[in-house]
Amino acid sequence: MNVLHICADPMPTEESAPKQLAVSFFRTLAEKNPEVEITNMDLYENPPPFLDYQAIRGFWFPVFIDGHKPTDDEQLAGAYGIEQGEIFNQADVVVLTVPMWNYSVPAILKAWMDQVLAPSVSFTMDKHGTRPLHKVRKLILLAASGDVIAQDDERDALTPVITHAFADAGIRDLSIAWADGQYAFKYTDAESRKAMAVDAAEELAEEVLEELSDL
Ligand SMILES: Cc1cc2nc3c(=O)[nH]c(=O)nc-3n(C[C@H](O)[C@H](O)[C@H](O)COP(=O)(O)O)c2cc1C
Predict the structure, then answer these.
(1) DSSP 45
(2) Distance from the CA of 169 to the center of ligand 1, in angstroms?
(3) Cystine design at 22: which of 97, 125, 136, 143 (Cβ 3.0–4.6 Å)?
(4) CA of 85 to the centre of ligand 1 (A)
(5) Concatenated DSSP letters for the chain?
(6) H/E element holding 90?
(7) For position 41, what pLDDT does the model report?
Protein backbone atom coordinates (compact mmCIF):
# COMPACT_ATOMS: atom_id res chain seq x y z
CA MET A 1 0.00 0.00 0.00
CA ASN A 2 1.36 3.40 -1.00
CA VAL A 3 0.38 6.30 1.21
CA LEU A 4 1.13 9.86 0.17
CA HIS A 5 1.29 12.39 2.99
CA ILE A 6 0.73 15.98 1.89
CA CYS A 7 1.62 18.31 4.75
CA ALA A 8 0.45 21.91 4.47
CA ASP A 9 1.36 23.12 7.95
CA PRO A 10 4.52 25.20 8.59
CA MET A 11 4.42 24.82 12.39
CA PRO A 12 6.86 22.53 14.24
CA THR A 13 5.18 19.28 15.26
CA GLU A 14 5.24 20.07 19.00
CA GLU A 15 3.22 23.24 18.30
CA SER A 16 0.96 21.82 15.61
CA ALA A 17 -2.30 20.01 16.24
CA PRO A 18 -2.67 18.67 12.66
CA LYS A 19 0.91 17.39 12.68
CA GLN A 20 0.30 15.60 15.98
CA LEU A 21 -2.72 13.90 14.39
CA ALA A 22 -0.41 12.89 11.54
CA VAL A 23 2.14 11.43 13.97
CA SER A 24 -0.61 9.34 15.55
CA PHE A 25 -1.96 8.23 12.15
CA PHE A 26 1.39 7.24 10.65
CA ARG A 27 2.75 5.64 13.82
CA THR A 28 -0.30 3.35 13.94
CA LEU A 29 -0.07 2.63 10.22
CA ALA A 30 3.62 1.70 10.41
CA GLU A 31 3.22 -0.33 13.63
CA LYS A 32 0.30 -2.37 12.32
CA ASN A 33 1.71 -2.85 8.83
CA PRO A 34 5.45 -2.20 8.44
CA GLU A 35 5.14 -2.88 4.71
CA VAL A 36 3.14 0.26 4.06
CA GLU A 37 5.15 2.65 1.91
CA ILE A 38 4.88 6.26 2.98
CA THR A 39 5.88 9.23 0.82
CA ASN A 40 6.11 12.50 2.71
CA MET A 41 5.53 15.68 0.76
CA ASP A 42 6.02 18.77 2.87
CA LEU A 43 4.63 21.61 0.78
CA TYR A 44 6.75 24.16 2.66
CA GLU A 45 9.84 22.29 1.45
CA ASN A 46 8.39 21.79 -2.05
CA PRO A 47 6.21 24.85 -2.55
CA PRO A 48 3.89 24.88 -5.56
CA PRO A 49 3.93 27.89 -7.86
CA PHE A 50 0.62 29.63 -8.49
CA LEU A 51 -0.87 28.58 -11.80
CA ASP A 52 0.02 31.06 -14.51
CA TYR A 53 -1.41 31.58 -18.00
CA GLN A 54 1.05 29.20 -19.67
CA ALA A 55 0.33 26.41 -17.15
CA ILE A 56 -3.44 26.90 -17.52
CA ARG A 57 -3.04 26.69 -21.30
CA GLY A 58 -1.02 23.48 -20.86
CA PHE A 59 -3.44 21.76 -18.47
CA TRP A 60 -6.85 23.09 -19.46
CA PHE A 61 -6.74 24.24 -23.08
CA PRO A 62 -6.65 20.67 -24.47
CA VAL A 63 -10.07 20.28 -22.75
CA PHE A 64 -11.40 23.69 -23.78
CA ILE A 65 -10.11 23.83 -27.35
CA ASP A 66 -10.29 20.95 -29.81
CA GLY A 67 -6.85 19.96 -31.02
CA HIS A 68 -4.86 22.15 -28.62
CA LYS A 69 -1.47 20.53 -28.01
CA PRO A 70 0.56 22.01 -25.13
CA THR A 71 3.70 23.78 -26.37
CA ASP A 72 7.12 23.21 -24.76
CA ASP A 73 6.69 26.45 -22.79
CA GLU A 74 3.25 25.41 -21.57
CA GLN A 75 4.57 22.02 -20.48
CA LEU A 76 7.49 23.66 -18.71
CA ALA A 77 5.09 25.99 -16.87
CA GLY A 78 3.21 22.89 -15.64
CA ALA A 79 6.36 21.01 -14.57
CA TYR A 80 5.59 21.16 -10.82
CA GLY A 81 2.06 19.79 -11.35
CA ILE A 82 3.24 17.06 -13.70
CA GLU A 83 5.97 15.94 -11.28
CA GLN A 84 3.66 16.01 -8.27
CA GLY A 85 0.94 14.32 -10.31
CA GLU A 86 3.24 11.37 -11.00
CA ILE A 87 3.73 10.93 -7.25
CA PHE A 88 0.00 11.41 -6.56
CA ASN A 89 -1.02 8.89 -9.21
CA GLN A 90 1.07 6.16 -7.53
CA ALA A 91 -0.74 6.54 -4.19
CA ASP A 92 -3.48 4.25 -2.88
CA VAL A 93 -4.21 6.59 0.02
CA VAL A 94 -3.66 10.33 0.30
CA VAL A 95 -3.40 12.00 3.70
CA LEU A 96 -3.76 15.77 3.98
CA THR A 97 -2.40 17.46 7.11
CA VAL A 98 -4.09 20.83 7.19
CA PRO A 99 -4.68 23.71 9.61
CA MET A 100 -7.83 25.78 9.09
CA TRP A 101 -6.78 29.22 7.92
CA ASN A 102 -9.43 31.85 7.32
CA TYR A 103 -12.02 29.10 7.42
CA SER A 104 -10.44 27.32 4.48
CA VAL A 105 -7.27 25.48 3.48
CA PRO A 106 -3.89 27.27 3.58
CA ALA A 107 -3.11 28.90 0.23
CA ILE A 108 -0.14 26.57 -0.25
CA LEU A 109 -2.44 23.53 -0.31
CA LYS A 110 -4.89 25.25 -2.64
CA ALA A 111 -1.99 26.05 -4.99
CA TRP A 112 -0.91 22.37 -4.88
CA MET A 113 -4.48 21.27 -5.63
CA ASP A 114 -4.65 23.67 -8.58
CA GLN A 115 -1.50 22.00 -9.94
CA VAL A 116 -2.37 18.35 -9.30
CA LEU A 117 -6.16 18.20 -9.63
CA ALA A 118 -5.87 19.16 -13.27
CA PRO A 119 -6.71 17.44 -16.54
CA SER A 120 -3.96 15.22 -17.96
CA VAL A 121 -2.24 15.33 -14.54
CA SER A 122 -4.53 13.22 -12.32
CA PHE A 123 -7.56 12.72 -14.59
CA THR A 124 -8.73 13.11 -18.14
CA MET A 125 -11.74 15.23 -18.92
CA ASP A 126 -14.06 15.54 -21.89
CA LYS A 127 -17.77 16.02 -22.55
CA HIS A 128 -18.43 12.45 -21.34
CA GLY A 129 -16.92 13.22 -17.93
CA THR A 130 -13.68 12.66 -16.05
CA ARG A 131 -11.61 9.50 -15.85
CA PRO A 132 -8.97 9.11 -13.16
CA LEU A 133 -5.31 8.67 -14.06
CA HIS A 134 -4.67 7.97 -10.37
CA LYS A 135 -5.56 4.95 -8.25
CA VAL A 136 -6.31 6.75 -4.98
CA ARG A 137 -8.98 4.86 -3.06
CA LYS A 138 -9.07 6.84 0.14
CA LEU A 139 -8.53 10.41 1.20
CA ILE A 140 -7.81 11.25 4.83
CA LEU A 141 -8.04 14.77 6.18
CA LEU A 142 -6.19 15.52 9.43
CA ALA A 143 -7.26 19.04 10.35
CA ALA A 144 -7.40 21.47 13.24
CA SER A 145 -9.11 24.77 13.91
CA GLY A 146 -8.83 27.38 16.63
CA ASP A 147 -12.57 27.68 17.06
CA VAL A 148 -15.12 24.96 17.67
CA ILE A 149 -16.25 24.38 14.12
CA ALA A 150 -18.11 21.17 13.51
CA GLN A 151 -18.39 19.72 10.04
CA ASP A 152 -21.39 21.23 8.20
CA ASP A 153 -20.94 24.45 10.20
CA GLU A 154 -21.64 27.25 7.73
CA ARG A 155 -18.24 28.80 8.54
CA ASP A 156 -16.44 25.67 7.37
CA ALA A 157 -15.07 26.31 3.89
CA LEU A 158 -12.27 23.79 4.41
CA THR A 159 -14.20 20.52 4.22
CA PRO A 160 -16.29 21.55 1.17
CA VAL A 161 -13.30 22.56 -0.93
CA ILE A 162 -11.51 19.28 -0.14
CA THR A 163 -14.69 17.21 -0.62
CA HIS A 164 -15.69 18.69 -3.97
CA ALA A 165 -12.29 19.24 -5.56
CA PHE A 166 -11.15 15.67 -4.89
CA ALA A 167 -14.58 14.24 -5.81
CA ASP A 168 -14.25 15.93 -9.21
CA ALA A 169 -10.98 14.03 -9.61
CA GLY A 170 -12.85 10.79 -8.77
CA ILE A 171 -11.98 10.49 -5.06
CA ARG A 172 -15.14 10.30 -2.98
CA ASP A 173 -14.02 8.28 0.03
CA LEU A 174 -13.05 10.97 2.54
CA SER A 175 -12.49 10.39 6.27
CA ILE A 176 -11.71 13.16 8.72
CA ALA A 177 -10.03 13.55 12.11
CA TRP A 178 -10.37 17.13 13.30
CA ALA A 179 -9.02 18.80 16.41
CA ASP A 180 -11.30 21.79 16.76
CA GLY A 181 -11.35 24.31 19.63
CA GLN A 182 -7.56 24.65 19.62
CA TYR A 183 -7.59 28.27 20.80
CA ALA A 184 -6.44 27.45 24.34
CA PHE A 185 -7.02 31.07 25.41
CA LYS A 186 -10.69 30.54 24.59
CA TYR A 187 -11.39 26.86 25.22
CA THR A 188 -10.16 25.29 28.45
CA ASP A 189 -10.72 21.83 26.96
CA ALA A 190 -8.43 22.47 23.95
CA GLU A 191 -5.99 19.75 25.06
CA SER A 192 -8.67 17.10 25.57
CA ARG A 193 -10.20 18.02 22.21
CA LYS A 194 -6.81 17.43 20.61
CA ALA A 195 -6.36 14.15 22.48
CA MET A 196 -9.73 12.93 21.15
CA ALA A 197 -8.70 13.84 17.60
CA VAL A 198 -5.34 12.09 18.06
CA ASP A 199 -7.28 8.94 19.03
CA ALA A 200 -9.57 9.42 16.04
CA ALA A 201 -6.51 9.65 13.75
CA GLU A 202 -5.25 6.36 15.19
CA GLU A 203 -8.63 4.75 14.53
CA LEU A 204 -8.57 6.06 10.97
CA ALA A 205 -5.23 4.36 10.38
CA GLU A 206 -6.72 1.07 11.61
CA GLU A 207 -9.73 1.59 9.32
CA VAL A 208 -7.50 2.21 6.30
CA LEU A 209 -5.57 -1.03 6.93
CA GLU A 210 -8.81 -2.96 7.33
CA GLU A 211 -10.60 -1.47 4.32
CA LEU A 212 -7.62 -1.76 2.00
CA SER A 213 -6.41 -5.11 3.27
CA ASP A 214 -6.27 -6.37 -0.33
CA LEU A 215 -3.28 -4.11 -1.03
C1 LIG B 1 -3.25 32.38 9.44
C2 LIG B 1 -4.18 31.69 10.39
C3 LIG B 1 -5.53 31.73 10.15
C4 LIG B 1 -6.41 31.06 11.00
N5 LIG B 1 -7.75 31.08 10.72
C6 LIG B 1 -8.59 30.38 11.50
C7 LIG B 1 -9.98 30.37 11.22
O8 LIG B 1 -10.46 30.95 10.25
N9 LIG B 1 -10.80 29.66 12.03
C10 LIG B 1 -10.32 28.98 13.11
O11 LIG B 1 -11.12 28.35 13.80
N12 LIG B 1 -9.01 28.96 13.41
C13 LIG B 1 -8.13 29.65 12.63
N14 LIG B 1 -6.79 29.65 12.93
C15 LIG B 1 -6.30 28.82 14.05
C16 LIG B 1 -5.78 27.46 13.57
O17 LIG B 1 -6.72 26.79 12.79
C18 LIG B 1 -5.37 26.61 14.77
O19 LIG B 1 -4.24 27.22 15.38
C20 LIG B 1 -5.08 25.17 14.41
O21 LIG B 1 -4.64 24.50 15.56
C22 LIG B 1 -4.07 25.12 13.29
O23 LIG B 1 -3.12 24.18 13.39
P24 LIG B 1 -1.71 24.42 14.15
O25 LIG B 1 -1.93 23.80 15.48
O26 LIG B 1 -0.72 23.71 13.31
O27 LIG B 1 -1.48 25.90 14.20
C28 LIG B 1 -5.90 30.35 12.12
C29 LIG B 1 -4.53 30.34 12.36
C30 LIG B 1 -3.67 31.01 11.53
C31 LIG B 1 -2.19 30.97 11.80
Answers:
(1) T
(2) 27
(3) 97
(4) 28
(5) -EEEEEE---S-GGG-HHHHHHHHHHHHHHHH-TT-EEEEEETTTSPPPPP-HHHHHHHHHHHHSTT----HHHHHHTHHHHHHHHHHHT-SEEEEEEE-BTTB--HHHHHHHHHHSSBTTTEEEETTEEEESS---EEEEEEE-SS---TT-TT--HHHHHHHHHHHTT---EEEEEE----TTT-TTHHHHHHHHHHHHHHHHHHHHHHTTT-
(6) none
(7) 98
Indicate if the alpha-carbon torsion angle 167, 143, 38, 12 is positive or negative.
Answer: positive
Contact of 108 with 48, CB cutoff 8 Å: yes
Please tell me the total count of domains within the chain.
1
88 Cα to the center of ligand 1, angstroms: 26
Ligand 1 atom nearest to 148, measured from its CA: 11
- Per-residue pLDDT tens for 97-142? 999 999 999 999 999 999 999 999 999 999 899 999 999 999 999 9
Do strands 37-42 and 174-179 pair parallel, antiparallel, or not at all (unpaired)? Answer: unpaired
Helix (H) or strand (E) segment spanning residue 184: none
Establish whether residue 182 lines the binding site of ligand 1, counting it when its CB lies within 6 angstroms of any ligand atom: yes
Residue range(s) defining the domain that contains residue 196: 2-211
Mean pLDDT of 49-76: 97
Answer yes or no: is the C-beta of 149 below 6 A from any ligand 1 atom: yes
